[in-house]
Amino acid sequence: MTTLHRAREQAAVLAEAVPWLQRYHGSTVVVKFGGHAMVDDALTDAFAADIAFLRLAGLRPVVVHGGGPQINARLEGKGIASEFRGGLRVTTPEVMQVVRDVLVDEVQAVLVRCIAAHGVPAVGLSVDSGLLLGEKRTAIVDGEEVDVGLVGDVTVVDNLQIEAVLEAGEIPVISTVARSTDGVLLNVNADTGAAAIAAALSADKLVVLTDVEGLYRDWPASDEVIASISVDELRSLLPSLSVGMVPKMEACLRAVEAGVPRAHIIDGRVPHGLLVEIFTDRGVGTLVLPDGVTS
Question: What pLDDT, on the 0 to 100 scale, is given for residue 7?
Fold first, then answer.
């Protein structure tokens, strides 16, 4: 490919992005970052570059992060087994302390530095500033409720903290640890935490980065990805999904039910997949839409 051909292709991509730049200028986009990409330095840097690009392009990105691989590694180092029920981490008080330390002191700090390295300041927000209040929840296993310890759902989001960071032109980076009304720390799944934050901010879009291409139509019999699905269709499909996909699709369902117009599942292992989803006609992954909406 000649230099001229390459330049023409790049120009075509930029031209394709113009309508989407106009559409989403000033929009609040909540992006959940987690999975394999978090332990791959190149993918983490590409993600940070994408987030910086969104802000420089006039969007208002809010990053909500997980830290499963790092938490697993820290627990293993302490000789503590990782246990999951219904896709949620069983969280004892000892595990909770590890979760808090890894998310706030390690993962969040790395993301803030990576985003800032691309020219846009980022600010870490966490339970330390009283950002999230929550209440305990259970998991569903084989149709039955089971206890998972200090695991919670977000009940209150301090929007003013997030809005103050956005208005300053900075990027909020949020760890999903909440505090209950009686002061107990709760481990909030980052997917469902991102949904609660997107709903509280009346965000225009929720994007969940994961380790698969999207929601498969008939896994494992088929690897066909569902391009878009309505809330009603997803609600009926949810009980049949694999354990790992339940929190992610539940997050999209909750967000759209709460008024977020669009929620996406995309493959975080693909460099710059976030930009492809937002700024091109093709898009990637699975889009969850309100009932009766087709695009």
Answer: 62
Number of H helices, E strands in the chain: 10, 16
Q: Please count the structural domains in the chain.
A: 1
Q: Residue 264 has which token pair?
A: 């996406």
Instruction: Convert 110-153 into a string of H (helix), E (strand) and C (coil).
Output: HHHHHHHCCCCCEEEECHHHCCEEEEECCEEECCEEECCECEEE
Q: CATH code at 149?
A: 3.40.1160.10
pTM (predicted TM-score): 0.91
DSSP bridge pairs for 88: 85
Q: Which residues of 85-113 are buried (b: 16+ CB within 10 A; e: fewer)?
A: bbbbbbbeeebbebbbebbbeebbebbbe
Type of residue numbered 117: A
Q: What is the per-residue pLDDT across 218-233, written as a single tens digit (0 to 9) for each?
A: 776 677 899 999 999 9
67 in a structural domain: yes
Q: How many other C-beta atoms lie within 10 A of the C-beta of residue 284? A: 19
Kindly state whether residue 19 falls inside one of the protein's structural domains. no
The answer to whether 188 touches 32, Cβ cutoff 8 Å, is no
Q: Which residues contact 277 (CB under 8 A, 6 or more apart)?
A: 207, 264, 266, 283, 284, 285
User: What residue numbers bound the domain in which 228 lies?
Assistant: 28-289
Arithmetic mean of pLDDT, 240-262: 90
Distances (CA, A) of 115 to 60, 63, 137, 266: 14, 10, 33, 20
Is 17 within 8 Å of 280 (Cβ atoms)? yes
